[in-house]
Amino acid sequence: MCTKWRHACVLATVTVLLWATPTASRTGSRQEQQSPRQHTREQPPDYRADCGTVIDGSKATAYCHNPYPATDRIRLHVECARWWDVDADSAPVELHPAGYAELTQRCWKEIRAVWISHQPQRAAGT
């Protein structure tokens, strides 16, 4: 026995199946195309020590630990708030694997900004 509603249901089911098949195949190809991009994304370097900074009045201190197998050369930079107050940069410190260092600098008055710079260990002969 054939009814109008049965034909409509079959037609709707076939339409959904035909629409879903190309969409599913396109979704899979998009994921395959995006996968190589994720692998080529630049990873952070494996030599940067983990550092935390503390500002206490006009004194800034950085506490750094190097969990990586490569040596990291770190420096503490302090920007003073007053125009007449000279900004301070610490001497570079070679932080070897599993090493720990505290770097301290100060301004005469308030501190505007504090940051740490990282450099990889230089190769021999450079």
Can you describe this structure in just a few lines?
With 126 residues, the protein is α+β, with helices and mostly antiparallel strands. 29% of the residues lie in helices and 36% in strands.
Task: Label this structure with key terms.
7 strands, 126 residues, 2 domains, three-stranded antiparallel beta sheet, 36% strand, alpha+beta, Immunoglobulin-like
Our Rg estimate from Cα atoms comes to 30 Å
Order of helices and strands: HEEEEEEE
Based on CA inertia axes, which overall geometry fits?
Answer: elongated
Number of domains: 2
Q: Please, what is the average pLDDT? A: 80
The largest β sheet comes out as: 4 strands, antiparallel
CATH architecture of the largest domain: Sandwich
Number of strands: 7
**Total helical elements:** 1
What is the third-level CATH name, the topology of the largest domain?
Immunoglobulin-like
Distance between the termini: 89 Å
* Low-confidence segments: none
DSSP strand (E) fraction? 35-45%
CATH C-level category of the largest domain = Mainly Beta
- Helical residue percent? 25-40%
Structural class comes to alpha+beta
